[in-house]
Specification:
By secondary structure, the chain is an all-alpha fold. The protein has a domain of 51 residues. The longest helix has 20 residues.
């Protein structure tokens, strides 16, 4: 519960603003899909999840660390 109230940065406020704006728009125009999008943005803002540097990135593995780099010699062809 304490993580909801901590670490509010620009992106969380932006997601919250977009979610509130889409929620208002969904209610006034009776749009179900826009309401679902508003729920998604609000959920991302509240739980601090989303695609970005902390969200949907693929873990970077360095499997090439143990391999040795060999010198390559080139031969000029005329």
């Amino acid at each position: 519960m304490t993580t909801i109230f901590k670490n509010w940065d620009f992106m969380r406020f932006l997601r919250l603003g977009i979610g509130l704006w889409l929620g208002y728009s969904a209610i006034t125009e009776h749009q179900l899909i826009v309401g679902a999008m508003a729920g998604l943005f609000l959920l991302q803002a509240i739980l601090n999840i989303g695609c970005g540097s902390k969200g949907c990135n693929v873990p970077y593995s360095r499997s090439n660390e143990n391999q040795k780099v060999e010198d390559i010699t080139f031969e000029e062809v005329k």
